[in-house]
Amino acid sequence: MEASASRVPPTFEHLMLPHLDAAYNLARWLLRDAHDAEDAVQDAFLRAQRAFGRFRGDDGRAWLLTIVRHTCYSRLRQNRREPAPEMFDDETHGSAHDPAEANAVAWREVKSALLQQALEQLPAEFREVIVLHELEGLAYREIAAITALPAGTVMSRLSRARAKLQSELKQLIEEESHGL
């Protein structure tokens, strides 16, 4: 059977829209603000769409995340600010009727909030490798392509980021236990 010579090339939407959540997730962690992240992703998607004619490849994830990363760092440089981290809101997270279940839910929420708080305290270059590897599941070589860093630097930065995250989390847990 002969391959069709009139194969339709994939569209921007087909290749890039599946990565919208990953783009937002990276932007959210880098910018630390949901609205700024939405704006950055929108800007990044517009840039990517304009540059789509120069895209060469099958998987647009690394290409798109590179654009999102550059957009976020441009915004950070432009604003020269680090937004305040979002505070955990007890009112939003109601408890269940069962006291044991309510305690379990509360503990999971506290652990999640502490982890988020610890992650937000990391410098941006550490947050980005943690988010790309641990949350988005990217391989070292993919992160290296996105960040324009050698793979060895990505691995050492990820190692340092994990150590710093563990240290920050330990400190927050100690502060939390002293407050009880």
Describe this structure in words.
The protein has eight helices and no strands. It has 180 residues and is mainly alpha-helical. It folds into two domains: 76 residues, Rna Polymerase Sigma Factor, Chain: A, CATH 1.10.1740.10; 90 residues, Winged helix-like DNA-binding domain superfamily/Winged helix DNA-binding domain (Arc Repressor Mutant, subunit A, Orthogonal Bundle). Helix 2 packs across helix 3, helix 2 runs antiparallel to helix 6 and helix 3 packs across helix 4. The N and C termini lie far apart (72 Å).
- Give the C-level CATH assignment of the largest domain: Mainly Alpha
The average pLDDT score comes to: 81
The biggest beta sheet reads: none
Number of strands: 0
**CATH-level-2 architecture of the largest domain:** Orthogonal Bundle
Annotated CATH homologous superfamily of the largest domain: Winged helix-like DNA-binding domain superfamily/Winged helix DNA-binding domain
- Helix count equals 8
Strand content: under 5%
Give a brief rundown of this model.
The chain is mainly α and 180 residues long. The chain is 70% helix and 0% strand.
Spell out the blueprint of helices and strands:
Layout: H1 12-16, H2 20-31, H3 34-51, H4 61-79, H5 99-121, H6 124-135, H7 140-147, H8 151-179
Helix pairs in contact: 2-3, 2-4, 2-6, 3-4, 4-7, 5-8, 6-8, 7-8
Structural descriptors:
0% strand; Rna Polymerase Sigma Factor, Chain: A; elongated; Arc Repressor Mutant, subunit A; single chain; 180 residues; mainly alpha; 2 domains
